[in-house]
Amino acid sequence: MPAKMDAAELSRMLGDWAQPGRLLPEALAAGLLELIDAGFAPAGSVLPAQRDCAAALGVSRGTVGAAFADLEARGYLASTVGSGTRVRSGRAAPATDGRLFSFTHSAPGVIDLSTGALPASEVARQVLTAGVSGLDAYLDTDGYFPAGLPVLRQAIADRLTRDGVRTVPQQVLVTNGAQQATYLALRALVSPGDLAIVEDPTYRGGLEALRLLGARVQGVPVGPGGMDLNLLGHALDRRPAVLYCQTGIHNPTGTTTDHDHRAEIGARAVEAEVPVIEDCCSYDLTRGGGVARTLAGHVDDDLLVMIGSLSKLFWGGLRVGWIRAGRSRIRGILELRKAEDLATSVMSQLLATRLLGRAEEARKERRRMLASRLSSTVRVVREVFPGWRWESVRGGTGLWIDSGGDVLALAEAAKRAKVRLAPGPSFSPHDGQRTMLRLPLWHEPDVLEEALGRISAHE
User: Fold this and answer.
1) Which Pfam families match (predicted)?
2) Helix (H) or strand (E) holding 9
């Protein structure tokens, strides 16, 4: 059967389709044609109903109907009563639904509130601008270290051990950022058609990787204390290939799983013999002291794969992440890695090693900055959108806000106001979370005031 696109998926992939000085039907038709030409709406795919498109895009049904009619007249679409509108021709689909489309350059004048990625910390600025040292020792080698430089693997293992997760270097694989780590870990465990259990909501990059791998995905709702244990038990009974979760600092909600709740999740995964991939990328970013707890100690090393990153603590541009797992699992993932990417830059790894030596300093810096920006963000949001609500956050880089209304329409209004948002469906395996919004914390108060003011004026 042809794939049917959800209105949230279409909204994500269209991006900033409404252009000043261009009629809306014409602009929408051009945006849809671009998706068809690029293969994001492949031949045979069924577009959402006109009513759903209109609601998601914040336009009239007549605008959608006119755009569809234009493309149908030009041979790109075909409408059948009772079957909807399908794409007649186009390229093969690149297996994506646009969850990471926000990681692209914003047009001039656009305020980007679509990502929680942080600018470089002061610690990172000091180390990175000082340049690379220690490179001479590696220049007589071929420069390829697929598992990572031994010195960096040791530094990561030492850091994890100090944080309460006993680790040896042979349990660490260095990657080009956490997104690659996530993809490699999932690829080692998931084949096309396999069932994967995830939280709802969850990190959108994990969802994109699972889609690329052809997995079937089932979401388990997350509350302030963690995943719904009853629904998790039913999901594990289905013998999934993997459980992908975040029990430390959760992205996007900023909550953390209670200790007893976390122990129960681990016990159930072990009993079901289901491998667990835990995203620990935000575990440094707690509001209190120390780091967030994880499933380490509750799930044996042969079942647990941990994903980490230096992006949150230092800077995303460094592109250094890691996988921590049992030795045999690391060896298997290493061979997968070689097939697509031989190694991480030696220079980046040397810089990462120096940065890890200042991890505690960086954690304190991030904690101070995020606490200050949380306070200013809350103040601005309450002034501009007093009806918005959210749970208290335990850490992370954003607020998970309930807007109380249709967040897809809000995001479309924001696009017209030159503001990019991250609506809830991007973080849901089923394109749910239709009233939710992830708002980053790191922007200066005046920038956030300007952005939210623009949105309020265009609602």
Assistant:
1) Aminotran_1_2, GntR
2) helix 7-14
